[in-house]
Amino acid sequence: MDQFRQGSKKFFLEAIDRRFREDRFLKKIHKFLPHYALAENVPMARFTSLRIGGPARFFAEPHSLEELRRLLRCAREAELRVFVLGAGTNLLVDDGGFFGLVLRLRGAFWERYYFRSEGITARCGLSLRCLGRLCGENAIGGYEFCNGIPGTVGGAIFQNAGAFGSAIGDLIREVAILQPDGEFARLRPAFSYRRSFLPAGAIVLSVELLRQEGDKDHIFRRQKEMAKMRRERQPREPSAGSLFRNPPSHSAGELIERAGLKGFRVGGAQISRKHGNFAVNAGGATCADVLNLTFFVKHTVRERFKIDLEPEVYYLANSPEESP
Ligand SMILES: Cc1cc2nc3c(=O)[nH]c(=O)nc-3n(C[C@H](O)[C@H](O)[C@H](O)COP(=O)(O)OP(=O)(O)OC[C@H]3O[C@@H](n4cnc5c(N)ncnc54)[C@H](O)[C@@H]3O)c2cc1C
Q1: 41 CA distance to ligand 1 centroid (A)?
Q2: Cα torsion at 243, 159, 101, 70 (round to 10°)?
Q3: What CATH number has the domain bearing residue 178?
Q4: How many beta carbons lie within 10 A of that of residue 188, not counting itself?
Q5: How confident is residue 3, by pLDDT bands cut at 50, 70 and 90?
Q6: pLDDT of 229-250, one tens digit each?
Q7: What integer pLDDT is reported at residue 218 of this predicted model?
Q8: What is the mean pLDDT of the chain?
Q9: CB neighbour list of residue 11: distance below 8 Å, 6 or more residues apart
């Protein structure tokens, strides 16, 4: 009984603390961005490729660097958590949503790019598909793999996106970031398989990419081949790409298939019948369905093969321990 009383008091205090923080945040916005149209309680399902996710308490789409810095300052001073959203194609958002500020860096300002003789500059909101297409048109080789990846440049740098043996990290000269304290920095981060080593909380603003000459016909042929392979192997239903990272010397998809889990379903979430490493929203899936499905697959693969699969998809939730 005591435990129950203590628990409910804790949640009550947490709820009051949230109200204080949102109140402080709104006052800061009023002071530093008086005419800014801040969106509230925005369903995140609209902004994720899985079409899943509860509301973001605050949601902003800054149109300039200065607006972004001011928004960050307001959140910092109100002790509000911040999440940077790209295209939401590698993201699972909790059904309970996110108590904090979601920053979506898309639109004309964030999608600019410049082709120079010494390299390519791309801002974080540019889609990888667009980058791949532009490189093809300009006979720049090495970016063919970008075409089939539905995310943004920012999201790709964050997790070193790649396919068909190539990854964005191999093509980077320099990354421009905004640090949580509002300072800018330029660096060349280290990269490993689906991972980049950026300073904690860094926002990728833009990237300088290598420019290497290629043959247009060869590039377009490779792009076509890759697109064909994707069409044959990957599902069409909403997904967040690969559910698990490939463990050393194994393919996560093959392990899941060998465990007999293709087509396995929990509520509206299903392991694709086409590809074992894709969890799809087969209709009306909730985040809880995807979490239960992921747990079951991970557990089954561990029992069968003694291999621990590690999720590749990022999870956004209210508990700081569970979120990126
Ligand atoms: C059908 C399908 C196929 C896919 N195929 C591939 C594939 O072949 N290879 C591959 O690697 N991935 C693949 N993906 C996954 C996904 O598209 C990539 O990982 C992509 O790079 C994610 O980018 P995003 O903009 O959607 O990031 P989001 O999903 O929006 O965010 C993912 C993470 O990146 C962080 N982030 C986003 N932007 C920034 C920024 N500017 N600064 C700092 N952090 C940021 C977010 O905070 C979050 O933690 C696929 C997904 C789908 C749906």
Answers
A1: 23
A2: -170
A3: 3.30.465.10
A4: 11
A5: low
A6: 999 999 999 999 999 999 999 9
A7: 95
A8: 94
A9: none
Instruction: Specify whether 73 is catalytic.
Output: no
User: Which residues form the domain of 11?
Assistant: 2-104
On whether the CB atoms of residues 167 and 191 are closer than 8 A, the answer is: yes
Q: Kindly report the CATH number assigned to the domain that includes residue 59.
A: 3.30.43.10
Residue 93 lies in a domain: yes
Residue of 140, 312, 156 whose CA lies nearest to 223: 140
pLDDT value of position 5: 61
Q: Which atom of ligand 1 is nearest to the CA of 239?
A: 53
CA of 149 to the centre of ligand 1 (A): 8
Task: Assess whether 117 and 212 both reside in one domain.
Answer: yes
Nearest-atom index, ligand 1, CA of 145: 8
Ligand 1 residue neighbourhood (C-beta within 6 Å):
49, 83-91, 105, 124, 149-152, 154-156, 158-159, 161-163, 203-204, 234, 239-241, 314, 324
- Residues 199, 179: one domain? yes
Q: Would the pTM of this model clear 0.90, i.e. be above it?
A: yes
**Is 196 tagged catalytic?**
no
Q: Which two tokens stand for residue 213?
A: 């000459």
Q: What is the pLDDT of residues 153-163, one digit of tens each?
A: 999 999 999 99
Is 211 domain-assigned? yes
194 catalytic? Reply is yes
95 & 16 share domain: yes
* Predicted pLDDT of residue 53: 98
